[in-house]
C-alpha cells in the first residue's frame, strides 16, 4: 500500500482539560486570550479548578498529535500515519494510546517511569481558546528512543515529517536527526512556528532547524513575532511569509513554502517570492464552539492532500475544510467520516 506510514509526526502528547471560563478566570491566572504558554507555578492550582467545573471535558491533544490524527481521518487509510512522543505510565497515558490507536494512527510512545502524562489547560472564553501546557512526561522525550531500530524504521519508512515548534523545547536533537535524514533522502520536512514564545525564547534551536524546513506553518501573530525577533521592520504578513520562504535552505531539492493562517482572513501561501491568498470557509459566530485545535486541524487537512501529491490549492482547501469542522466541535475532534471532495 502506497500510503502506509507515509507521514510521521513527533511532538508533545498532552491530555486537554477543556472548560468554558470567564474573563476573571483568565485575569486570576494571568492568561492572555488566544495565546499558548507553558505552565508556571502560579498556574498549577488552575488545573484542579478547571477539573472541578461542571462543563469540563478531557480530550487527547497536543499540537502535532492533533494534526496527525486529522490527517489520518482525512486520508481514511489505516496506518498511513505514525506519531512519536512521551507519556507517563498512568490512566491518562492509557486513554491517549487508546484514542490514537482507535483513530488509526500508529503510535510509538516513549513511556516515562516517573512523570505523569502531560496535560494542557484549555480555557475557552467566547469561543476563543487560551492554552497553558503542563508538559510533565512530554518533556522527558529522549532521542535514544527515536534511535531504537523499531522507531527509526518509522523514520526510514516515512516520506513526510511534521513537527510542531513546541517540540523544540523538549528534544531539539531528535528534530535535528529527522531533519538531516529528510534532507539527505529528499524527503519533506515541515514545522510550525506554533506560538509567539517559541519564536522569542527558543530562537536558537528554531534557527538551527529552519534550514531544513520545506514547509513552515504558522498564524499571523506568530509570523509577526518571528519578524520582530529577527529585526524585520514589517508587520505585513504577506511580506513576512515571503521572507521566511527565502531564508537559507539545507537542501535544494524542495523550495520552501510558507503557509500562514489568519483566522477568518485568507490563508497566505508564499513560494518563489510570490504570495497567493486563499479564502477560508466563513462560519457564523453562533456555530463556533471553540477554536481549540483549529490551526492543528488546518495542518492535518493540508498534509492529507500533500502526501497524495495534490496541488497546493487542494491542500489549503482541505486544511480549511478540516479546521471548519473542528471549530464547530469541542477540542480537536471530528465526525466519523470526512465529507471532503
Strand content: 15-25%
**Distance between the amino and carboxyl termini:** 22 Å
The total count of strands amounts to 14
Biggest sheet, in brief?
9 strands, mixed
Helix-strand category = alpha/beta
Can you give the helix content as a percent range?
25-40%
CATH architecture assignment:
3-Layer(aba) Sandwich
Rounded to an integer in angstroms, the radius of gyration calculated over CA atoms is 18 Å
CATH class: Alpha Beta
User: In the CATH hierarchy, what is the superfamily?
Assistant: Ribokinase
Q: What is the CATH topology assignment?
A: UDP-N-acetylmuramoyl-L-alanine:D-glutamate ligase
Which geometry do the CA atoms define? globular
Count of helix runs: 13
- Please give the order of strands in the largest beta sheet: 6-5-1-9-10-11-12-13-14
Order of helices and strands: EEHEHEHEHEEEHHEHEHHEHHEEEHH
Q: Mean pLDDT, as a whole number?
A: 94
Q: Any low-confidence stretches, pLDDT <50, length ≥5?
A: none
The total number of structural domains is 1
Protein name: Adenosine kinase
Pathway: Purine metabolism; AMP biosynthesis via salvage pathway; AMP from adenosine: step 1/1
Family: Belongs to the carbohydrate kinase PfkB family.
Active site: 296 (proton acceptor)
Amino acid at each position: 500500500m502506497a500510503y502506509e506510514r507515509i507521514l510521521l509526526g513527533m511532538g508533545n502528547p498532552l491530555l486537554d482539560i477543556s472548560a468554558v471560563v470567564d474573563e476573571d478566570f483568565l485575569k486570576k491566572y494571568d492568561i492572555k486570550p488566544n495565546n499558548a504558554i507553558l505552565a508556571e507555578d502560579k498556574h498549577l492550582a488552575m488545573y484542579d479548578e478547571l477539573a472541578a467545573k461542571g462543563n469540563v471535558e478531557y480530550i487527547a491533544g497536543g499540537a502535532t498529535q492533533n494534526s496527525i490524527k486529522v490527517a489520518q481521518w482525512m486520508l481514511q487509510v489505516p496506518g498511513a500515519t505514525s506519531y512519536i512522543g512521551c507519556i507517563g505510565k498512568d490512566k491518562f497515558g492509557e486513554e491517549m494510546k487508546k484514542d490514537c490507536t482507535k483513530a488509526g494512527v500508529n503510535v510509538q510512545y516513549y513511556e516515562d517511569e516517573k512523570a505523569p502524562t502531560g496535560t494542557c489547560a484549555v480555557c475557552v472564553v467566547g469561543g476563543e481558546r487560551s492554552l497553558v501546557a503542563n508538559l510533565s512526561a512530554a518533556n522527558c522525550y529522549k532521542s535514544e528512543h527515536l534511535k531504537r531500530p523499531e522507531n527509526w524504521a518509522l523514520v526510514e519508512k516515512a516520506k513526510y515529517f511534521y513537527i510542531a515548534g513546541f517540540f523544540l523545547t523538549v528534544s531539539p536533537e531528535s528534530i535535528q536527526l529527522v531533519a538531516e535524514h529528510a534532507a539527505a533522502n529528499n524527503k519533506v520536512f515541515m514545522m510550525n512556528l506554533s506560538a509567539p514564545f517559541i519564536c522569542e525564547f527558543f530562537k536558537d534551536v528554531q534557527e538551527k532547524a529552519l534550514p531544513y524546513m520545506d514547509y513552515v506553518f504558522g498564524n499571523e501573530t506568530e509570523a509577526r513575532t518571528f519578524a520582530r525577533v529577527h529585526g524585520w521592520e514589517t508587520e505585513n504578513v504577506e511580506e513576512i511569509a515571503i521572507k521566511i520562504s527565502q531564508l537559507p535552505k539545507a537542501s535544494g531539492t524542495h523550495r520552501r513554502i510558507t503557509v500562514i493562517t489568519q483566522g477568518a482572513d485568507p490563508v497566505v501561501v508564499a513560494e518563489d517570492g510570490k504570495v497567493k491568498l486563499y479564502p477560508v470557509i466563513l462560519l457564523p459566530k453562533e456555530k463556533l464552539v471553540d477554536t481549540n485545535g483549529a490551526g492543528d486541524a488546518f495542518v492535518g487537512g493540508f498534509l492529507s492532500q500533500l502526501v497524495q501529491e495534490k496541488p497546493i490549492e487542494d491542500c489549503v482547501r482541505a486544511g480549511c475544510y478540516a479546521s471548519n469542522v473542528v471549530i464547530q466541535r469541542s477540542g480537536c475532534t471530528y465526525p466519523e467520516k470526512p465529507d471532503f471532495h
